[in-house]
What does this fold into?
Amino acid sequence: MTEWATGAGWTSELSAARLHVVSGKGGTGKTTVAAALALALASGGRRTLLVEVEGRQGIAQLFDTAPLPYEERKIAVAPGGGEVRALAIDAEAALLEYFELFYKLGMAGRTLRRMGAIEFATTLAPGLRDVLLTGKVKECVTRTGADGRPVYDAVVLDAPPTGRVVTFLDVTTAMADLARSGPIHKQAEGVVALMHSPKTAVHLVTLLEELPVTETLETVGELAAVGLRVGAVIANQVRPQWLPDRSLAAAAGGRVDGARIRSALAGAGLDLPADVIDGLVAETVEHARRVESEAAAEERLDVATGFARLELPRLIGGVDLGTLYELAEALAEQGVGVGKVSA
Amino acid sequence: MSPKTVANRLDVDALIDDPATKVLVCCGSGGVGKTTTSAALAVRAAEHGRRAVVLTIDPAKRLAQALGLERLANEPGRVEAVGPGELHAMMLDMRRTFDEMVQAHATPDRAEAIMANPFYQTISSSFSGTQEYMAMEKLGQLVAGGEWDLIVVDTPPSRSALDFLDAPQRMSTFLDGRMIRLLSAPGRGIMRVVGVGFTLFAKAVSSIIGGQMLTDASAFVQAFDSVFGGFRERAEATYQLLRSPGTAFVVVAAPEPDALREAAYFVDRLSTDGMPLAGLVLNRTHPVFAELSATKARAVAEELRGSPLAAAVLQLHADRVDLSVREERLLARFTGAHPEVAVTKVPVVEGDISDLAGLREIGNRLAAPSPSLIKGKESLAKID
It folds into this structure.
């Protein structure tokens, strides 16, 4: 389906990553791509965890299930065996979990939550919320089973959008908000180590349009500046180009030979009135312009380096559970998978 | 009786021409084209003779340049070559707006003490909701200045359109400082309220976020106390302004399930809060210009061996029909649940909107009745 003019595909380094963070500008479909990635990584008998952190219940909507609790649940079976579990992390619940663990708050914890005290604490130290969320993610990535092997072959995090993702992942800055010696500070140090290790890859979802590509490239730079690794840039909702290459530029310039189309169609037994031909011509011009602007956006991505490039097709019928499998399949065809997991 | 699924048309020109319309607030989830829609409405209003100002939040670079917004001024600047009315544009500078608000409500030394507090830095730059709060504050200032016929407001790129309405209240509640006071002076009287848990909680909080921050927060609240009344009144007045007859909300959505779901939440919320909704702008639609079914087009395309161009034209038409059917179905679902909401569809303009001509074209599409085949074609020719 896909050929890259330049840029690399999925690498073995990415197959070895354990935490896949998926971000993107609003409206680019990052939740869908994260879900498809979790499915693709689970295929062939693996187990992955798909995590959301923004309280949107986007995963439940996508998989058409009841809202997810703060609890890991199986939500899908992957092609060739394997399963995807899902978790919606809630910062307040995560904080209470800590309080419970370190201070034995008991019933008082719930009272304080009702009073808004938990929200207050996360408001006072905005970084605290991020540390709590990423801390829980880290726990899922590093958790091992009775056999000493990781419980999950890979964890896919549906992260905040590009505007906030660098602050969210760069917990080092957020740690400035935290007491130097507290229990959460210690946890945050572990998060920093994980995020900056080869075990983590940050993937950015974009559309082949000017603004999303600009924001993607800016984010690539910002991530690199804080030492976070960009894994793949995934162009989503890529639409087919129907026109022959030689007709493209002329069509985009508004030059489409309606008379020729009319006679070709008539030759195939389709006689169309002039206004329908005019309509077809107008649609063709728009199509050509869109193809050209997508190509221009793609060229800007081609110039940048340092990340893999993947593509997903636009599904005209929209995304449902069945089409998620199609997207996962498309990712697998481009090499997406889990490498040998070391114990 | 089957539910109504064909929406009333949102008459954009009637809205912007009406002298009673003083404020238009454009809301919607991220990535649906709010900024472009706001700018296009303001341009059109100015060209209909009104003295209009658009308050943008985070415009794309080239659009910002087109509106003369290369640098942050935090005050409106005139955009040339738009008339017979006037167009002014500005970009919100969140930090400066906050500073100015503090300066306006506090004595000079108090203001200085507040602005030097490390906690103020957090609140004024990274508190979630500051941007929304400051956008409302700026809107309040623009209204109070009384120089504008029409103020068009773009809203911050939050996940949910509801954030714009909720953030000021959230921030106000937070700054009210009840919890801060409790935490900075635990012990006195509090035990009676929450019992022993609170002391433990205070200990836990300070062990997690550090004693210094609580001290800063407490000092901030004390200094802030004197100006807080003024703040709260302002926020309340601006919120009331949003409910006044001169204000209308324009909800912007793309023809995608998520964006329309957000739009539906927002519409419900406006109705609960008694806020006036002008209608829904359904952005970037793909109307079909040629009357020919997708099935027929694909069948003939398969047969057309000799003419790759004609075959391609039929295939791209068939895709467009499918897309359009989907968009109509999504809109019908929205309209079925919200039959009272007027809608205008804005057919997609391929490529980037980065100049006044592009904004005018969006304006034309905003104001046009649902595109017929011919209208679509004419308006297409104009953007060359």
Q: What stands out?
A: The CA atoms of residues 153 and 341 of chain A lie 7 Å apart. Confidence is low (pLDDT under 50) at residues 1-7 of chain A.
